[in-house]
Amino acid sequence: MYQIVFGAAVVHPAGGRLSGERKDTMPDTDKEEPGNAMPIIACVTVGVFQENCYLYACPQTHHAVIIDPGDEAERILQRIQELELIPQYIINTHGHIDHIGAIDAVSAVYPVPLAIHPDDAIMYTDEQVAKLYGRSSPLVQRKPDILLKEGDRLAFGTLTLEVVHTPGHTPGGVCLVSRPYCVFSGDTLFHRSIGRTDLPGGDFEQIVTSIRDKLYTLEDDLVVFPGHGTPTTIIEEKYENPFVTVEE
């Protein structure tokens, strides 16, 4: 069996009508092969930006990845311990402060490899952002161990995450695809919304291309777990997202 846990989250602006029933969970268990348990996924919504940090784990080994530990490290660590997970990687979908703020504190307990796209790695040491939010610089003391690129695969237990480079919100934004279950979309794609592009490094045309060419071409029934707000599915956003719809 799988477990999905969500905390309070910001709901992004919705648009359009739901054409059917929402599917906010993993694929139905009757679709899985006999003897194959579903992945464990827990969401800890943290900080003033209500960012979703995800714990994604193999049900057999409890080997896990920590995706975007942005704040409130003690809550993230508590959830890892409650679920008896064994972290293997810390992965950033991008480098904004609300997604990286707890890396050092989490790493002090679980010093596992840290992964981010090279185009966003510079954000770990952004002095201006640190000053703006009253934080010491660098925002992340440790250096990344893995510089992600398109097509990379990170394996843990029986699960694999494939890296899809989706620039637009930031130059080094990535999404993480775990077939046949889900995609962690960071701040690229939300439930009926998309990532903002008015911050440094943002590019509206680029994010539209990333979503249309790289996410909307994924399997329709993949559950989308975004960096803020509630889950959705690829097929819902293809036809109901008011900012980027699939081209007919």
What does this structure look like?
With 248 residues, the chain is of the alpha/beta class. The protein has one domain (4-240): Metallo-beta-lactamase, Chain A (4-Layer Sandwich). Helix content is 20%, strand content 25%. The chain has seven helices and 15 strands. The strands form three sheets. Strands 1-2-3-4-5-6-7 form a seven-stranded mixed β-sheet. It has a six-stranded mixed β-sheet with strand order 8-9-10-11-14-15. Strand 14 and strand 15 (232-233) form a beta hairpin. Helix 1 (73-82) packs parallel to helix 3. The longest helix is centred in the C-terminal third of the chain and has 12 residues, at 204-215. The protein is globular. Residues 1-35 have low confidence and may be disordered.
Discrete helix count: 7
CATH class: Alpha Beta
Strand order of the largest sheet: 1-2-3-4-5-6-7
What is Rg? Answer: 17 Å
Q: Summarize the amount of helix as a percent range.
A: 10-25%
How far the N terminus sits from the C terminus, by CA atoms, comes to 37 Å
Q: How many discrete domains?
A: 1
The CATH topology comes to Metallo-beta-lactamase, Chain A
Low-confidence stretches: 1-35
Chart the SSEs and their pairings:
Layout: E1 4-5, E2 40-46, E3 51-57, E4 63-67, H1 73-82, E5 86-91, H2 97-100, H3 103-109, E6 114-116, H4 118-121, H5 127-132, E7 146-147, E8 153-156, E9 159-165, E10 174-178, E11 182-186, E12 189-190, E13 193-194, H6 204-215, E14 223-226, E15 232-233, H7 234-240
Parallel strand pairs: 1-2, 4-5, 5-6, 6-7, 11-14
Antiparallel strand pairs: 2-3, 3-4, 8-9, 9-10, 10-11, 12-13, 14-15
Helix pairs in contact: 1-3
